[in-house]
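Box S1 | Example of a co-folding query
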Amino acid sequence: MPKKIALITGISGQDGAYLAKFLIKKNYQVIGLERRSARSTNWRLEKLNIADKVIIEDVDIKEINNLIRLFSKYKISEIYNLAAQSFVQSSFYNPIETAQVNAIGVLNILEIIRNQNRKIKLYQASTSEMFGKHDKSYQNEKTLFHPRSPYASAKAFAHYTVQNYRESFGLHAVSGILFNHESPLRGEEFITRKITLGLAKIFLNKKKTLKVGNIYARRDWGFAEDYVEAMWMMLQAKKPDDYVIATGKSYSVKQFINECVRSLNLKTKWVGKGLNEKLINIKSKKILISIDKRFFRPSEVDNLKGDYSKAKRILKWKPKTSFSKLVKMMIDSDLKFVKKLYQ
Ligand code: NAP
Ligand code: G4F
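Box S1 (continued) | Returned holo structure for G4F
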């Protein structure tokens, strides 16, 4: 029997790489979309030893004509649309580019499915950022959206449009409302990886101080490899529907830092308040972490904590990796990474 073909947009990103690995194990032929770039963006696929097992096509999802050509070239069964301008802070500086990729890019894909082949299943990468400013202790599929960034507004447009195409044209299109998920393959601009990499450098005497923004923001952090399985499960369900994927636990950025410090066995203390708050190494008296207002956002999402009971009940999905295990995995990986970088 010929292999099923899965198309992953954003294959060079964190989730794209883990999902490609997962689908290859499930015996799919994986086609990955990458936009042309001067530097190689394949390091994650190489790290997972799958770079030679996927077919890469050079397509920007903003370009509908290139997408149409691609859809004619392959008999695609499933599309996982992970491509996005995914950094919330950047979306405040590049709102139009963010909307073109995160909103119109999704519409391009939906239009092609509607016009070319309505049997193609679509997974859309929605996000807990859409909840933004809410008054619920847990957020689930019924919680109202209140986007707090151009990133979240564009994702909300995509989310509602996927729902509308499902209801209007009978497409098997679903959105996964994924809460933050991290890993050693996370981009260095996101806070978890910024902290694990920064502290690993400090621990190995390659950096003095790490500067961060709002350490009181709280997130529901899971492990990316657990979450890509949920994407696939959503597309295999008989009835297309949207699901929250989360751990149901929430920690502040400060708690994430404290867990890293524990994992490194460093004796530290927090001193000061507001912009003057600092993390000090008790023995050396050196400042390990300080606050810099450049990393604060014009409007913040203060607290996210997901209720994933629908996914548990219908898909039989649940998270496998604890917060402390995730932190340790990322710190250990960055210690190795930094040692190699400077050897
Ligand atoms: P990521 O590491 O930043 O990857 C994003 C990918 O999108 C990269 O491969 C990037 O390519 C690609 N891309 C950006 N613009 C594109 C364009 N115009 N055409 C084609 N490809 C483009 O993000 P991630 O963490 O894997 O997240 C995957 C998806 O899930 C994103 O849509 C994100 O918004 C969403 N999401 C993530 C989380 C999370 O916590 N990780 C939570 C909820 C939702 P380059 O390599 O060329 O930049
Ligand atoms: O790691 P972050 O940049 O992730 P954020 O904004 O929550 O977005 C991530 O998760 C979303 C799911 O909810 C995805 F949709 C999105 O694509 C992305 O993957 O920031 C997390 C929190 C924020 O509250 C931010 O203000 O950490 C706070 N923070 C404090 N200092 C910082 C910093 N964030 C970054 N990136 N850098 C700092 O120095």
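The pocket of NAP (ligand 1) is lined by residues 9-10, 12-16, 33, 35, 37, 41, 60-62, 82-86, 101, 125, 127, 178, 180-181, 187 (CB under 6 Å). The chain has two domains: 5-183+222-248+303-319, 191-217+252-302+327-341.
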